[in-house]
Amino acid sequence: MTFEISSVFSKLQMLSTSDHASVVSMNLFVALLCGCIVIGHLLEENRWMNESITALLIGTSTGVIILLFSGGKSSHILVFSEDLFFIYLLPPIIFNAGFQVKKKQFFKNFMTIMLFGAIGTLISCTIITLGATEIFKKLDVGPLELGDYLAIGAIFAATDSVCTLQVLNQDETPLLYSLVFGEGVVNDATSVVLFNAIQSFDLDQIDPTIALHFLGNFLYLFIASTMLGVLTGLLSAYIIKKLYIGRHSTDREVALMMLMAYLSYMLAELSYLSGILTVFFCGIVMSHYTWHNVTESSRITTKHSFATLSFVAEIFIFLYVGMDALDIEKWKFVSDSPGTSVATSSVLLGLILLGRAAFVFPLSFLSNLAKKSPNEKISFRQQVIIWWAGLMRGAVSMALAYNQFTMSGHTSLRCNAIMITSTITVVLFSTVVFGLMTKPLIRLLLPNTAHSKESTITISTDASTPKSFTVPLLGSAQDSEADIDNHDIHRPSSIRALLSTPTHTVHRLWRKFDDAFMRPVFGGRGFVPVEPGSPTERNGHQWR
Amino acid sequence: MTFEISSVFSKLQMLSTSDHASVVSMNLFVALLCGCIVIGHLLEENRWMNESITALLIGTSTGVIILLFSGGKSSHILVFSEDLFFIYLLPPIIFNAGFQVKKKQFFKNFMTIMLFGAIGTLISCTIITLGATEIFKKLDVGPLELGDYLAIGAIFAATDSVCTLQVLNQDETPLLYSLVFGEGVVNDATSVVLFNAIQSFDLDQIDPTIALHFLGNFLYLFIASTMLGVLTGLLSAYIIKKLYIGRHSTDREVALMMLMAYLSYMLAELSYLSGILTVFFCGIVMSHYTWHNVTESSRITTKHSFATLSFVAEIFIFLYVGMDALDIEKWKFVSDSPGTSVATSSVLLGLILLGRAAFVFPLSFLSNLAKKSPNEKISFRQQVIIWWAGLMRGAVSMALAYNQFTMSGHTSLRCNAIMITSTITVVLFSTVVFGLMTKPLIRLLLPNTAHSKESTITISTDASTPKSFTVPLLGSAQDSEADIDNHDIHRPSSIRALLSTPTHTVHRLWRKFDDAFMRPVFGGRGFVPVEPGSPTERNGHQWR
């Protein structure tokens, strides 16, 4: 009798205390997140560090401590879960990026972003796959197959948009930010199409229709994902405007915006579309319409809480990657042949550098051909920064590598263990070294940007054409002098007009359409004349 | 070769689309949450409905639809998880309650709350256990043991603080709100002690030291949990004030407040304390100190985002409970003997009514003995409302019942199935019927409260003593006339003075201490003279 009662109550007690091991690890994680935030604050004025590097280093140090305490058994306390990453951590980050992005800057560079994101990723993937196939055979890495090499290409062609958000500042370098970040978003769609295409087509029977089919697939995926995001955003704007939700409760408005943004991501995943693209465009539409339909306190709340969620998710990812890096199991194969592992990592880093250079410079040249004024062109110095800022590989690469080379988090084959450790090395090295050097590089190549933050806001408020957005960035004397080699290429003005007119016409037509049809239905204000109430601008003027 | 490649990419595709079934269920849940919010908005002015009943009904309807579509197999799409409930959904609700609670009202009624929460729960648990033991034997429910009966007592003695938050309005009935909600919070600590005590002591050897031991345990748990919450709150205030986090980033402040609040809950769970008590007091301290140390936009953001998180978590719980209610597996035993099930549910509902009446009225009488002025006493009409508003049983009861009577969500024994279905019936019936009748009951018994919202805020702003908070509630002529039976009991004034002096002295000492030592270190403002910047008040004046 006594035994039965005590078993009953031990069950009830278990319930109230939950699984103790998971409670311990959650405590540790939450405490580390707090630590990262405080340390990040203290290092804010440091010109080298950024929050992701801090989190990565804290994660690694904690990994060392756990390793010592557990007697060399394990360095991490949570098993890496792709679900956790793709379902919970990534959506807030990408949504917030869309919500806070400077819309004019993004759409002005739309074609360039598409070039980089779609064609560029293909080029980079091809080069990494070919390079790895050639070199790894000589390095005696192990029995890797064609599928593995294609996967390596895909894994290391994935520009990590999370890292980009950390090293580039939207206010200081708006053009670079929109190009590199936009590329990262489009990147995802390209990868999904790439995988689907290779899976559904027989690689032995290569004929011209495959390319056409591939193109069709890509267009379908891109358009469908974008439309889904736009429609969800518009629906939220319509509901909040029509029903005037804020009349009764601010909390309902905020909850509805959060839930509908998340719904757009989940709907895209449900339809096998690119959730990242969908939630990004949902963020853009929400900041253009929905955000203006809610009450003043909801505006402040949504702006800051979306940013906070995204901020915490980013730190969480880097903390985890740092902590997981030292997991002893993966390194035991490496200790037998340290040379191979170092060589593999170096080769991969080299291929990443090469693969990215192979598309940034040619595609920038192509993109410059379409630009009318010298101010709108991507200067050589800026191309170098675009090349450099997209070199970092992060949690997306880790997630893909884990999926390809492990079975539920464990590695049994030597070649798989080497690939995992090489991925970790590349992620750590690229984030820390490339990341640390990005801020100084921007300061070196574009010395005026750090001070032009104020003037960007002032000028953009007064200006009525999208062009003026780039003036503070490109208008400095040094820049113009340095870019003579690019700017002096004279082309027939008719071609320039032909290439540049559609963008301007589309923009004018859009503004007319927005004023006449969209805004009366979906609310929103500020696209005409210059978005006085956009989340980012209001931040600078009033709420910081 | 082709096979291997396609398997590689099917893996990669699986990664990008995640587990499709869970994506479907998440879509449905998020869409239903949006639906609940919109419908809740449309029904806002309805005098009967509230958001939890809406969510419960929508959940039940969805359950019916899923049941039809799945061919009668299952009505729910997520398996009820106690972790989900206790680790993710409950903390934001309780933290927000502490964050938004009217602190003076709460501490003024502290002794009454402790009486209700500790002694009251014990009385209620004893009555339900004894009643169930007697009656269930006659009903032929099945082979239940003493442990089961004790668990039934604990399950149905648990006042659901989430429901209470929904039916009682802090602005309209501050005294009732703080009493019933405070009781629910203390309730949790009592339950944990109860389980621990019975587990660790041999029930066969009952001697006087057990009671003493039990009392010691309860005091330790209560004091330790409270201190942990207070210390975490103070630490957050100190860090944010000392380092002036808001200087660089608003997001860091918001993130730090959220993470430290959650950390307090997890630390309590780690130390086997009552997380609910801890996070509640952490919320109180944060609203008193930390909230005043952050920037203006962080204040608005935290206030609304905590409220939104709590709001969404509440709707989620009710939606789930409604959806789970129709799960066919549990009902198949019941269909054999519908009479027994109806009788069991009715008996339990009756015992809940009786058990609550058995401590509300006697303990209110005791509490009134300690009050000096007639205005501070709990009138008979208010006692009826306290009794009624605490009758609802919700997700806590469900979680406890699932833990006691099922093995990983499934029931195999007939008596267990009957207990689960009875719990569901009691939860649905008490929430819908008792919940629907609470608002009209308050209107019937206290007709003036709905209009006194404005004056509450005005008077509390001018007043300098805690007493005046209750004036708008109790000061109306009708109330005073109706409560003559209570108020006319004259006791020697020396006893009244003896009983009431400590509270006032403690309050004065606390204010001195707060001004002299606490506020210079931990920041915060507003306790003197009357909290002009408390989250709730600012809401009424400026931000709604």
TrEMBL record, chains A, B:
Kindly list the places in or outside the cell where this protein is found, as annotated in its UniProt entry: Membrane
Task: List the membrane topology term(s).
Answer: Multi-pass membrane protein
Q: Show the GO cellular component annotation of the record.
A: plasma membrane
A Pfam match is Na_H_Exchanger
Q: Which UniProt keywords apply?
A: Antiport, Ion transport, Membrane, Potassium, Potassium transport, Sodium, Sodium transport, Transmembrane, Transmembrane helix, Transport
Q: What is its main location?
A: membrane
Record InterPro entries: Cation/H_exchanger_CPA1, Cation/H_exchanger_TM, NaH_exchanger
For biological process, the GO terms are:
regulation of intracellular pH; regulation of stomatal closure; sodium ion import across plasma membrane
Domain (Cation/H+ exchanger transmembrane) spans 31-442
**What's a Gene Ontology MF term here?**
sodium:proton antiporter activity
User: Catalyzes what?
Assistant: K(+)(in) + H(+)(out) = K(+)(out) + H(+)(in); Na(+)(in) + H(+)(out) = Na(+)(out) + H(+)(in)
TM helices/strands, residue ranges: 20-43, 55-72, 84-101, 113-137, 218-240, 274-294, 306-323, 343-363, 384-405, 417-437
Cytoplasm among keywords: no
Question: Which NCBIfam families has this protein been placed in?
Answer: b_cpa1
Similarity section: Belongs to the monovalent cation:proton antiporter 1 (CPA1) transporter (TC 2.A.36) family.
- Protein name (record): Sodium/hydrogen exchanger
Species of origin reads Psophocarpus tetragonolobus
